[in-house]
Amino acid sequence: MYSEFYKLTGKPFQLTPDPNFYFDSSTHHKAMAYLSYGISQGEGFIIITGEIGSGKTTLVGRLLQSLDPAEFVTAKIVTSQLDADNILKMVAAAFGININVADKAIIITEIEKFLRSNNRQGKTTLLLIDEAQNLTTQALEELRMLSNFQEGNKALLQSFLVGQPEFRDKWAFDPALEQLRQRVIATHHLSPMTADETKEYIEHRLTLVDWKGNPEFSDDGHAEIYKYSGGVPRKLNTLCTRLLLFGAIEELEVITGEVVKEVLSDMEEDNYAAAASSKMRQDSVSPKKGPNGTAANSNDEQVITVSEEAIEEAKEAGLTASAELIKLRKRIVRLEKNIKIHDKTIKGTIDIMEDLLNA
Q1: Strands, DSSP E only, in 103-255?
Q2: 180 in Cβ contact with 144 (< 8 Å)
Q3: 216: how many CB neighbours lie within 10 A of its CB?
Q4: Which of 42, 101, 178, 216 is deepest in the core (most CB within 10 A)?
Q5: What's the pTM value of the predicted model, to 2 decimals?
Q6: Under 8 Å between Cβ of 142 and 88
Q7: Could you give the 3-state DSSP secondary structure of residue 217?
């Protein structure tokens, strides 16, 4: 909708990581320099960490996009809670190695054959692990063992580990990972962008979709955006998408500080509504308690409520009471009444059908 209104050729702030929208901020520039240095060294581990939404996946995607497939064989794994055996299977699958056995020794042998074949063809093999904080210590040790494969004095596999801040503590302080630490040749932690970089980031992304200055972002608009996002790319994308949508609906040509505040207020109310709805669903599946604290008879009417606890949780999350909040609570109460009526209707229908079946 907003793309058509502002005559943009695409969505500049989509949440799905897209290396084509990579922005070379100072912190991302350093990270890319370390990745490039690692590739030039052809061995060891490069570790990149950063907060959720800091642009790690986009960074890795940009790196892969820049490599010549005639010179590099690459594979990327996004990990869940993988143990030592499963990480080896994932590595094999990522490189397209067809393995239908569970024997660990055979899997390692096939991976080694693959690495040596690439080396004979003059190709460098790179393995990128995203969400590395999910790997167990044993899985990291298996990756370290794969780095032992060599041809003469040349390593056959190089690994890049990308993860959230907790991974930085894991690899740095876990006594069981001492040998891995000795093979880390570079590491960098992505920090948030500065206020100036945040402005450049927004304009960079807009320019890539043929933005011609409409809408314009005022200085106080940029200030409010930075105040909310703290320079974190994913927060920027979320807010700017809402701003463009709001601007298109209201037919705005300038995104001011007041506009940003209004959109943030809407987002705040949406968050509260989601929290209240989640609490309502939890309460709806909880059995009604009898006087002695035990579950009430199944034939009793089930009470669906939005407790004050949900309201307090929302407030603790930074949500403030307002006239709109009061209206929302009244709407939820009406919804509860309608659900009760609906439940009674269904129960009555079931009873009639049971009577007919019994007859």
Answers
A1: 124-130, 150-151, 154-155, 158-163, 184-190, 216-217, 254-255
A2: yes
A3: 11
A4: 42
A5: 0.73
A6: yes
A7: strand
- Residues in contact with 150: Cβ distance below 8 Å, sequence separation at least 6, in sequence order: 156
> Which residue stretches of the chain are H helix?
2-5, 26-41, 56-66, 84-94, 104-120, 137-146, 165-173, 178-181, 195-207, 219-229, 233-250, 257-284, 308-316, 323-358
Judge whether 300 and 288 are in contact, CB under 8 Å: yes
* pLDDT value of position 235: 95
Name the region of 34 (left: φ>0; alpha: ψ -120 to 50; beta: rest). Answer: alpha
Separation CA 23–CA 59 (nearest Å): 9
Domains and CATH numbers, the chain: 2-16+194-255 (no CATH), 26-190 (3.40.50.300), 263-289+297-358 (no CATH)
Counting beta carbons within 10 angstroms of the beta carbon of residue 249, is it exposed (0 to 12), middle (13 to 18) or buried (19 or more)? exposed
Return phi, psi of residue 321, to 5°. -70, 145
Q: 1 to each of 98, 155, 238, how far by Cα in Å? A: 45, 51, 16
Q: How far apart are CA 109 and CA 86, in angstroms?
A: 15
285 phi and psi, to 5 degrees? Answer: -100, 0
Tokens 């167990």 — which residue?
136
Low-confidence ranges of the chain (pLDDT < 50): 288, 294-323, 326
d(CA 15, CA 72): 28
Q: State how far the Cα of 286 lies from the Cα of 29, in Å rounded to an integer.
A: 51
How far apart are the C-alpha atoms of 331 and 286, rounded to whole Å? 22
Query: 3-class SS at 102?
Result: coil
**Token pair belonging to 193:** 């962008």
**What is the number of other CB atoms lying within 10 angstroms of the CB of residue 317?**
11
